[in-house]
Amino acid sequence: MTKQHENHRDMNFSHTVLKQSGGSTLLGYIGIDTIIEQMRKKTMKTGFDFNIMVVGPSGLGKSTLVNTLFKSQVSRKSAGWSRDEKIPKTVEIKSVSHVIEEGGVKMKLTVVDTPGFGDQINNDNCWEPISKYINEQFEKFLKEEVNITRKKRIPDTRVHCCLYFIPPTGHSLRQLDVEFMKRLSHSVNIIPVIAKSDTMTVEERQEFKQRVRKELEMNGIEFYPQKEFDDDIEDKSDNDKIREMMPFAVVGSDKEYQVNGKRVLGRKTAWGIIEVENPNHCEFAQLRDFLIRSHLQDLKEVTHNIHYETYRAKRLNDNGGLHPITSNDTQESNL
Amino acid sequence: MEDEGEGVRAVPLAGHVGFDSMPDQLVNKSVNRGFCFNILCVGETGLGKSTLMDTLFNTKFEGEPTQHNQPGVTLKSNTYELQESNVRLKLTVVNTVGFGDQINKEDSYKSIVEFIDAQFEAYLQEELKIKRTLHSYHDTRIHACLYFIAPTGHSLKSLDLVTMKKLDSKVNIIPIVAKSDAIAKSELAKFKIKITSELVSNGVQIYQFPTDDESVAEINSTMNSHLPFAVVGSTEEVKIGNKMVKARQYPWGTVQVENENHCDFVKLREMLIRVNMEDLREQTHTRHYELYRRCKLEEMGFKDTDPDSKPFSLQETYEAKRNEFMGELQKKEEEMRQMFVQRVKEKEAELKEAEKELHEKFDRLKKLHQDEKKKLEDKKKSLDDEVNTFKQKKTAAELLQNQAQQAGGSTTLKRDKERKN
């Protein structure tokens, strides 16, 4: 027996309610709430996939941030191109996967890096390789889904979340930022972050954020969590609070220092140590809680139920195939 | 996790990240959506199917028991909304009405198979739509089939074997011995063994409780050996000691439903609901539904091409078929049009013929009429001539008469008169 089940037996267990047209009837305990435990066990066994993409010009600390988020070396830093390596002429897509485990939960984390984005003199259409990559993952999934004999679990390489790094200029969004987010916000969940925010004071930060938010609104860019996908009132109020705080102004670091007797992740400067996980110093902790501790599953669901479905519908419509099978349909009559 | 072992390194975490809340996040989402569970009860009338459902879910679901005079097997389904703490469950109970009541039971299983297939079909249709809403779809596929075996104590009836064989590839079958208080305990063990061996020798695949998860492996494998469950259902309560328990009271004693020494009801409830409900749903989706889908699509003419050939073969095959069908449609349309034109021509020709005939008739009649008229006119003319001649003669005669009267005597008159006569 599971522990939860034992608890039920010992205490006054909850009564089941049968909803009928006249009202509700109280029944004795049946045990259908054990399905939660059953489901939880099942998901622990199968583990999760999560694919996160980082986009932004080089040098903004993308890899460091991801490593800080997941507290492990999941992304290889490209800081300091060696003499032999050149800055890529076009945007490259590099994806690296690792398996991390915590509390019995296994996660296959794939970090998709986009070196070369925004680094050229002429950045026309630099979002195209990224858009292409995202659509390719949708296509892969669609192909698997459409097979006659399907795999028990279709491998999910679709990008669940795209962290877009905004340089901390303090002024406003650049045209490149607007163009990118405008084009991709309909195929992937975009979470804009202000990188290296330790260059701004708290006031400068607030002003910058407000300006950025206004610009995003003016350009009709719906970043994650999108207003239109709020499930219910509770969801909406939770998400409203988050949307008010976005974009998160973050600082990343993988070095630890001693502060007030504790070991903390931080950046050491001549004028003090910036504590990454201190909510007074930067908004890293909020980003982490939002991204990982509360909305991780939701990011996957929005990708699957909305972005993927949009791609699928468009793809099937464009090729004029697999139109909805209605009762008058010809295929039915062939059977 | 299971199949991505190659090339993916595991890295250690340097601190608490927090994604161990993933199962909770997922479970919360599911709880918000609510769950569906659909049970099908197959068994002859009078085996206590409705009572067992009432007992399992602690309520009185339906109305009166059904009669034994149904002409065929129909399936009646009822949906109920149950809520326990924060879990909302849409429970659907489907009953086979009239199963086993007919004299000729050859087709009894057919309506059941059709019903199960219809639920798969509905899901498949939704899955194949362009604009689909799978995540909020009310799943009506049958997750568990309780097969009620009559407590004869001997063996399975041939109807049971045939039906279960037809159903085992479409649904999770859990066989149970109904009204098992009719069998003595010693006979029950033998009966169970007989049933199990008959199922095995006939190749019937019943649902096996899963034993791959260590936390439930032990209990599940024990339960597997107790199949088929011998159950007793009752919604009436009897006072035993100082508690009210569900039981059936006989003059010689009371059968307590929830007493594990009396019957396997508790085991059934445990296995069906409290331990394996999720697995039953998963098996239905990943095994039975996939099998149905594969067969259906292959039937419709789709094929998976080999891995290195064209992408999206399903859609292309479909396109080809659609073009083929459109072509046929067009051909048929052409044919129909041609036939129509042909018919019109024919009718036109007929009408022309008729018209011609009419004209001819008319001409003939006219001519006839004219001839007659001429004849009549001729006759009239000749008659007129005769009349004229007669008148002339009359005038001449009168003249002569007058002359004779003036000149002669009456004798010549008489002689003339005689001559005239």
UniProtKB/TrEMBL annotation, chain A:
The keyword Transport does not apply. It comes from the Eukaryota. Its main location: cytoplasm. Keywords: Cytoplasm, GTP-binding, Nucleotide-binding. One of its GO terms (molecular function) is GTP binding. Residues 46-318 form the Septin-type G domain. PROSITE patterns: G_SEPTIN (PS51719). GO terms for cellular component: cytoplasm. It is found in: Cytoplasm. InterPro entries: G_SEPTIN_dom, P-loop_NTPase, Septin, Septin3. Belongs to the TRAFAC class TrmE-Era-EngA-EngB-Septin-like GTPase superfamily. Septin GTPase family. This is Neuronal-specific septin-3.
UniProtKB/TrEMBL annotation, chain B:
InterPro entries: G_SEPTIN_dom (IPR030379), P-loop_NTPase (IPR027417), Septin (IPR016491). The lineage of its organism: Eukaryota, Metazoa, Chordata, Craniata, Vertebrata. Keywords: Coiled coil, GTP-binding, Nucleotide-binding. Residues 402-421 are annotated as: Disordered. Residues 33-299 form the Septin-type G domain. PROSITE patterns: G_SEPTIN (PS51719). It comes from the Eukaryota. Gene3D superfamilies: P-loop containing nucleotide triphosphate hydrolases. One of its GO terms (molecular function) is GTP binding. CDD domains: CDC_Septin. Belongs to the TRAFAC class TrmE-Era-EngA-EngB-Septin-like GTPase superfamily. Septin GTPase family. The keyword Coiled coil applies. This is Septin. Residues 315-393 form a coiled coil.
